[in-house]
Amino acid sequence: MTLPTADTGPACYVFTINDWICGDYYRDRWSELRDATVEHLWITAVAVLLGLAVAVPLALLARRYPRFEGLVLGATTMVYTVPSLAMFSLLVPFTLLTARTVIIGLALYSLTILVRQMLAGLRSVPDEVREAAAGLGYGSLRMLIRIELPLALPVIMAGLRVATVSTVALTTIGSIVGYGGLGNLLASGVDTDFKAQILAASVLCVLLAVVLDLGLLGVQRALTPWARMRAA
User: Fold this and answer.
1) CA pair distance 223, 162, nearest whole angstrom
2) With CB atoms 3.0 to 4.6 Å apart as the test, which of 39, 49, 141, 209 could cross-link to 181 if both were Cys?
3) Residue 8 class from Cβ within 10 Å (0-12 exposed, 13-18 middle, 19+ buried)?
4) Is 14 within a domain?
């Protein structure tokens, strides 16, 4: 993106002034900021949901078959150590330069947090609770859905919040394949030293992370009223 010249652009973000805080920029580029924020939110949400869909069976597999736990945790940790540029480069031959490249890469990164937290949550359920449920005739599936997952939910949600905030930050790196949401504005702003754009994209990225974290916290509290009663 090229900065406007002194003849055509608003005074506070011309080359000669280039302010960090510029009301004219927010008004003139509002649609651009909105579209980038929506794309950022969409990529983050889909990536986290995909990661969660993969993490659930992996965590259940690791818990049911302890000999696979080291393999599952080791594999997800190893994936997290792969640099994002290398990760996207490995995916591009299969997903091309599309949003799928970023979404799949971010979902893989989220597994490190989600799988570990899900295992920790399931293991936090007291053995006596499981024994009582088994005595009442609960099968393994019914126990998982009705007993274990609800009791493990605070720990699982804590991991989901961390994974979501982390994904908001990592989504910006998707700009290297053209699908980075606010990261696209950050990259172009840095290339052109467009201060107003750099600040606006950075602040929106932070606000998005805070809003999503608070939203998930609200969901957690709504789904675990007994935790609030115990804390009170």
Assistant:
1) 18
2) 39
3) exposed
4) no
